[in-house]
Amino acid sequence: MGQVNNVKCPICQNNNGCTKDSSCWCNDESFPRDIFKLVPSEYQRKMCICKSCLDSYKESIKPSDKNNRHSDC
Ligand SMILES: [Zn+2]
How do residues 27-50 score in pLDDT, each as one tens digit? Predict the structure, then answer.
């Protein structure tokens, strides 16, 4: 297992803000399994999704929310 130092979100290419340790914000978040379908397979488990993508994805899958907002990551 080599060191992976990708700090870019594979979806939006912005900094994902992941610190890769227990203080990272992603430890407190739940990632819907389907969000990883948005990530190219070669990047899965290598690059973390950023919080804004996670938030907009969660917004997009909210069944009760029908305001049809464009989720522009
Ligand atoms: Zn992102």
Answer: 899 999 999 999 999 998 888 999
Distance 39 CA to ligand 1 centre (A): 10
Extents of the domains making up the chain: 1-61
**How many angstroms is it from 31 CA to the middle of ligand 1?**
13
Rg of the chain, C-alpha, whole Å: 13
Which pLDDT tens digit goes with each residue over 58-67?
999 887 655 5
pTM of the model: 0.72
3-state secondary structure of 46: coil
Dist. CA 15 → ligand 1 center (Å): 7
CB 71 within 8 A of CB 59: yes
